Amino acid sequence: MEMPMKRLILIALMTLNCTFVTADTLTLKAGYPESYVVKKGDTLWDISTVFLNDPWKWPRLWDVNPQIANPHLIYPGDQLTLVFVDGQPRLVRNGASSDSAKPHIKKSPEGRVIAKSNAIPAVDLTLIEQYLVQNRVVDNNWLAEQPMVLSGESPSRHHIVGDVIYIDGVLPLGQKYGAYERGREFLNKESGDVLGQEAILASTGQVIESGKVSKIKLLSSFRETKAGFRVLPMGSDSLMSAYFTPKSAELKAPALVLATESNLREAGKLNVVYLDKGTEDGIEPGVVFSIFRDGEVIVIDQNGMPVPVIERTAYENLIASTSTDRAIQMPDIYHGKLLVFKVFDKVSLGLIVTTERPVRVGDKLVAPESLAFRGQ
Hints:
By secondary structure, the protein is mainly beta. It has 3 domains: about 1-125, no CATH class; about 135-240, Elongation Factor Tu (Ef-tu), domain 3, CATH 2.40.30; about 245-370, no CATH class. The chain is about 10% helix and about 35% strand. The chain has helices spanning about 1-15, 45-50, 60, 140-145, 315-320; strands spanning about 35, 80-85, 90-95, 105, 110-115, 125, 135-140, 150, 165, 175-185, 195-210, 215-220, 230-235, 245, 245-250, 255-260, 265, 270-275, 285-295, 295-300, 305, 325-330, 335-345, 350-355, 360, 365. The strands form 7 sheets. Strands 7, 8, 9, 10, 11, 12 and 13 form a 7-stranded antiparallel sheet that branches. Strands 16-18-24-23-19-26 form a 6-stranded antiparallel beta barrel. β2 and β3 (about 90-95) form a beta hairpin. It is flat and about 70 Å long.
């Protein structure tokens, strides 16, 4: 019962309720406490939501104080106090609430605090991993050169957990691989340049026999594995970080929703979408975007009356596409927020963490700090 509740709490915390803010101001939540004792299971994100309206600004809440030189190294039992430095709120650590929370090793009359491996994280991946996908976006030609599934020990054309499949290549014994189905080719909307080839993870397995034709035993399945799928090593580039560090996106131009993971027309809360920006654009896991859709263009008819989009004539559509006094652009419409969890060269994967309206391909992704945004 604890994990489902924790998951609901995390999602609720990511459903933000904000007004206009500036890039230089931390907005404290109404009724914020003056101090807080770190509990087992807390994350930096959790603690920041106790104090801030904008949790992804958490690094600045811990900044500029000597007591927390590294915010990742605070532990259950630590007492944190809110102070103001040059008018800005900061958290400082008063110390542990019990000796068990901070063990000491005595080498002299004074004790020293030893480093521990269980410092609290930013956002724990395990709380949201059930909503994420392990698809990849790779170079099309590169994918075509990777080892291929030929068939399997089972006479069936569809292979699942426990089946052994045959691969056309010498693979390292014991190495873990993923079997990937070729998906969509992604293109830049404006330039038409190829951004990458979607590779959809069907299953994972381990090499149990190596040779000209190697054998992989399937250990997990997300969909049926078939002949023709390509197998890729499950290395560090295919895995996700254990923890996320949420922060506001910083882009000179808006990113766009490139596609929905499910290939449906619309996506909602806890659905995954592709973005048309990646590491080459400075995107990192943990980046938070606000999602907006372009406002409609309202045409003023010859009688001086506004014409709704659905009622425009062909002539009025032409006017709407030109820059005239009779075509008025309405404000962009807020649709939700998105957390990037996996990044490739030119494309990223993001989880929609809150929505006020369905998200569609082509929706704009902008830095949340620079706009008015609301949670549901």
